[in-house]
Amino acid sequence: MCLAVPGKIENIEGTDPVFRCGKVNFGGIIKQVNLAYVPEAKIGDYVLVHVGFAISTIDEAEAQEVFEYLRQIGELAELEEKQ
After folding, report:
1. Are the C-beta atoms of residues 40 and 8 closer than 8 Å to each other?
2. pLDDT > 90: percent of the chain
3. pLDDT in tens, 1-30
């Protein structure tokens, strides 16, 4: 199953819209993510990330709801084990 996982943007690098990227926090695990598809995203925003690309912005309540669903189906086990 393919999932988009929510994360919080910690910083943003670059000004070129195609190469704009940022560090996104997924519950303590930080990954570099391409932000080209969400030009409106800013530091502190939550984004849905699929295969290294932020595909949309979401509010914090929605991000927490998605995390809860993922916990319920056991998809966060890998992330939680690494903390």
Report:
1. no
2. 58
3. 567 899 999 999 998 888 999 999 988 889
Residues 4 and 50: beta-carbon distance below 8 Å:
yes
Rounded to whole angstroms, the Cα distance separating 74 from 47 reads: 21
Q: Are 10 and 19 in contact (CB under 8 A)?
A: no
3-class DSSP state for residue 73? coil
Q: Which amino acid, residue 35?
A: L
pTM: 0.81
Highest mean pLDDT of the ranges 14-18, 31-35, 76-80: 31-35
Helix (H, G, I), strand (E, B) or coil at 3: coil
- Non-local (6+) Cβ contacts of 50 within 8 A are 2, 3, 4, 5
Query: For residue 67, what are its two tokens?
Result: 């995390």
Give the length of the chain.
Answer: 83
